[in-house]
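hey so i finally got around to running the thing on that chain from the lab meeting. sorry it took forever, my laptop kept dying and i had to restart like 3 times. anyway pasting the input first so we r on the same page abt which one it is
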Amino acid sequence: MEPREKLAELARERGVSLAALSRMLARNPTYLQQYISKGSPRKLEEEDRRVLAKFLGVEEAVLGGPKESSYVSRDGTDWVEVPRLEVDASAGPGSASAQEGMFDAFRFSQRWLTEQGLDGAKLSAIRVVGDSMEPLLREGDEVLVDCREQPFRDGVHVVRLDELLLVKRVASKGGGRFSLLSQNLAYPPLDVAADEFAIIGRVVWKSGRV
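ok and heres what got predicted. didnt touch it at all, straight out
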């Protein structure tokens, strides 16, 4: 797959717009759209390619750079950097204030990710706000979201509903309808149709203070 096609695919899988990625590079919002659709520029500048590869969790070679073995420590251990995004997933009434930029990264060993059946290139970390998922998830916790396309199964997911990003337990009711459930019983379940919300990814891990 050509680097342009791969970049477009990775952006879709992450649920991140090309405009947001362009802004992350301090470029015009149409920069990456023009690169992909019009071939201008002909190839990404080295620094832009490096930043995008780190953000998307892939080797630079995937985006047209030289082949290299990234995230290898001095002792030979492979590490994968998972981006921490400037995005809040609300565990309360919902929040629309989200900037889709990377500000830091968590580093996981490739061996651990493999043991967990996870693909580092399809993961991102976002912060939880609100109390509707307590005691499972508390405000300030960060969750690891698996953005791979896979058959639906009940569990805790990050979803987009009416332009809001929520973290909820999603359960199928059959007939194309779903329940978005909170752990905190003070919050009633939300009943939605399949075309009324989008699953961004499944929550597979959390970090938080004790």
